[in-house]
Amino acid sequence: MVSLNRISEICGVSLGTVSKALSGKPGVGDATRERILSVAREHNYRPNRLVHAIQRGRSMMVGVTCSQFDDEFAGNIVAGMFEALYQDHYDAMVIQWERSVQDGVRALSNLAGRRVDGILMFPPAAYPEGAYLDELRSFPNPIVVVDQTWPGCGYDLVGSQDVEGAFAATEHLIELGHRRIAHLGFLHGSTGRDRLKGFQDAMIRHGVAIHEKWLRDLQSYPSEEPYALTRELLSGPDRPTAIMAFNDEVALQALAAAADLGLSVPGDLSITGFGDLSVVRHVRPQITTVTQDPREIGRRAAKLLIKRIEEKHENQAAPAAMQDRLPARLLVRQSTGPCPTAT
């Protein structure tokens, strides 16, 4: 690949003139600029991005931290991020958040050392504290948090309308006549807490009693715990007629537990999920769920981060943190039906 020095020799101009021409800066005649661009194309010149980063004060590189890359939801978010980053000529450096910290590697310090312009962050499975928060506070560039947040977060967030989506799913069950409704949640993350709030808000709005014995909090996720908890809920004589699950994977385990106990879904038990993973359209019965748009979440998060990077580069005052929550819509399928005691 040809160098800037070689282009300057071929064209008989200074290195500074070549640099101005290739970067579109003024001070170069049209004929000279065209000659330089033509030689660069002919010799397949590729700019040194590190040099350009130093010149611009930006690396055109962002960090992406995630605790789990191998599920469909996270994968679609990352795909949306990469799509938006590519459109704006940014590259990404991806790290697994928990593993980096557990191995003693100061993840954010490493990203800062590599001059990333900002971070798109899937928070850890549990709320960050201690070393996590210290690293976040020391990072000098913008951070956009994706899907999950935590008390006192203070960063921009892009996610889903978890409260509203859970409210709609619960209200759907109530409208079908269900009053004995269980909730299988994961309260270690903000999405789980928000979905529990949506569940509780709908129950209170419609005057339906909330039974503490049917509110179950998963202690580990992902795991086989949802299956075991569902079997426990359904094995006694006093059992719920409907289960609102934290997400589609939990709903699928609840479906399996009901089948193993010989219960019909939705004849004996209605189940709702959250997320609209592709698998819930291919099981029978198909799972009633709340759809999210993870690819668009990723795109919006990346666009917002780029906007914050531009604002910082232009020395604009840092704006107040914002939350951009995409609509979550109920999709009624085959796993919900009238309450058996109401027919």
Roughly what fraction of the amino acids lie in strands? 5-15%
Helix tally?
A: 13
Instruction: Determine the N-to-C terminus distance.
Output: 76 Å
Global geometry:
elongated
Query: What pattern of helices and strands is seen along the backbone?
Result: HHHHEHEHHEHEEHEHEHEHEEHEE
**CATH fold name of the largest domain:** Rossmann fold
Q: Percent helix among the residues?
A: 40-55%
What profile does the largest beta sheet have?
A: 6 strands, parallel
CATH architectural label of the largest domain:
3-Layer(aba) Sandwich
Please state the average pLDDT score.
87
User: What is the SS-derived class?
Assistant: alpha/beta
- This entry's quaternary arrangement is single chain
Q: Which superfamily, in CATH terms, is the homologous superfamily of the largest domain? A: Response regulator
CATH level-1 class of the largest domain? Alpha Beta
Number of domains: 3
Low-confidence stretches: none
Provide an overview of this structure.
The strands form 3 sheets. A 6-stranded parallel sheet has the order 2-1-3-4-5-11. A 4-stranded parallel sheet has the order 7-6-8-9, with helices on both faces. It folds into 3 domains: 4-47, Orthogonal Bundle (434 Repressor (Amino-terminal Domain)), CATH 1.10.260; 61-160 and 294-326, 3-Layer(aba) Sandwich (Rossmann fold), CATH 3.40.50.2300; 162-292 and 330-342, 3-Layer(aba) Sandwich (Rossmann fold). Helix 5 (72-87) links the parallel strand 1 (61-66) and strand 2 (91-96). It is built from 13 helices and 12 strands. The model has no long low-confidence stretch (mean pLDDT 87). The protein is of the alpha/beta class and 343 residues long. The longest helix has 20 residues, at 294-313. The chain has helices at residues 4-11, 15-23, 30-42, 49-56, 72-87, 97-102, 107-113, 131-138, 162-175, 190-205, 225-235, 248-260, 294-313; strands at residues 61-66, 91-96, 119-121, 143-146, 156-160, 181-185, 215-217, 242-245, 270-272, 289-291, 323-326, 329-331. Helix 9 runs parallel beside helix 10 (190-205) and helix 11 (225-235) crosses helix 12.
